[in-house]
Amino acid sequence: MMRKLMMAAAMLATTALTAHADDVKEVQMLHWWTSGGEAAALNVLKQDLATEGYTWKDVPVAGGGGDAAMTALKAMVAAGNPPTASQMLGYTVLDYAEAGKMGDLTETAVAEGWDKAVPAALQKFAVYDGKWVAAPVNVHSVNWLWINKAVMDKIGGTEPKTFDDFIALLDKAKAAGVTPLALGGQNWQEATMFDSVVLSTGGPEFYKKAFNDLDEDALKSDTMKKSFDNLAKLKTYVDPNFSGRDWNLATAMVINGDALVQVMGDWAKGEFVAAKKVPGTDFLCYRFPGTDGSVIYNSDMFGMFDVPDDRKAAQIALAKATLSKSFQSAFNVVKGSVPARTDVPDTDFDACGKKGIADLKAANEGGTLFGSFAQGYGAPPAVANAYKDVVSKFVHGQITSSDQAVDELVKAIDDAK
Ligand code: BGC
Predict the structure, then answer these.
(1) Residue of the nearest CA to atom 3 in ligand 1?
(2) Which atom of ligand 1 is found nearest the CA of 64?
(3) Strand extents, DSSP E, 213-331
(4) What is the distance between the alpha carbons of residues 12 and 116, in angstroms, rounded to a whole number?
(5) Which terminal CB of the chain, N or C, has fewer other CB atoms within 10 Å?
(6) Tens digits of per-residue pLDDT, 321-340?
(7) Closest CA to 185 of 388, 34, 357
(8) 303 ligand 1 Cβ < 6 A
(9) What residues have CB less than 8 Å from 243, skipping those under 6 apart?
(10) Span of the secretion signal (predicted)?
(11) CATH assignment of 144-183+248-282?
(12) Where are the domains of the chain?
């Protein structure tokens, strides 16, 4: 009986995984990868799928952080016309899964052994109710500094190990007449930087309590006030034209030596790579001062929608390609992120990538791997948006003190929950 059941299951799996002549040989993907580095990384995927005979229907929605893309996705899904897959972050995947909109990749996941290779921190968001609903493509990390090496040499700077060191370094750049801090004044960029400031100011346990557990005492603590004080200090090193600037233009300021440093997720490295810059020679990657040993992560997931049967083979091909070891290496080398599997060799990665892989492993094993609040891995989208809004109002002077910022943060999170 058992044997018969197993054979039947195997046959079913084969049927589902086999392509049919009338299958749609097209992958339609919604994403916000429109910068130079991002487009180069996406090309790796397009080419992989092309070799398997799939065409690519691109649905790009510009806007770092993905807010505009998520609005477009909502409209497509509401119209009953979901893409084959969409780039998505953490809790957004779970929201769509809960609403019953996602497909089921479990057969493919089992056949390919994803559960053994993908870290639990990602499975928490890619698996809903026991079913794989998304394919994680990478792990990004936000607590990084990206520094122009020539500018650093010129001002005689060294790696800042504490927040005070960082301020001293920014002062040196200012004294030399270089813009110290390249920032794009958009809410998601400001909040992404603030994630690091909070980890640096309060330490790992505080970050987790405040930004993953949403513990009210932590959110309204003096440590959170101090974090806003530190953010206010950083703001004084930004050039006057920062409002609304795209993140990759801020990265370009560092690449071109117009600014010393950017605090940004490691997608910034994708821009350096696209500009043929080499770590250690042209640029430096350090952990945000005071956060070494911890990793604030996000992961781009390809959320897989419940598409009509004739589009399922393409979806499975996309999922398989995404989690293949060779793709995980080739894509992430270009993207600036690290593999979403723990069994991919770091051979082809540059020094920053190798550090990223080692840091992720250590943080995962040591309990210091935390979801980025700004990047959708701390709390559901409504709460994350409330957070981004408060941080941005503080940076742009609509909230005028750290006391007020903390009050508004607690209230906004409470309302959004
Ligand atoms: C994504 C990255 C992307 C960045 C800027 C982040 O939310 O995780 O893949 O490069 O936004 O667009």
Answers:
(1) 267
(2) 12
(3) 259-263, 283-287, 295-298, 300-304
(4) 23
(5) N
(6) 999 999 999 999 999 999 99
(7) 388
(8) no
(9) 185, 396
(10) 1-21
(11) 3.40.190.10
(12) 26-140+298-356, 144-183+248-282, 185-237+380-417
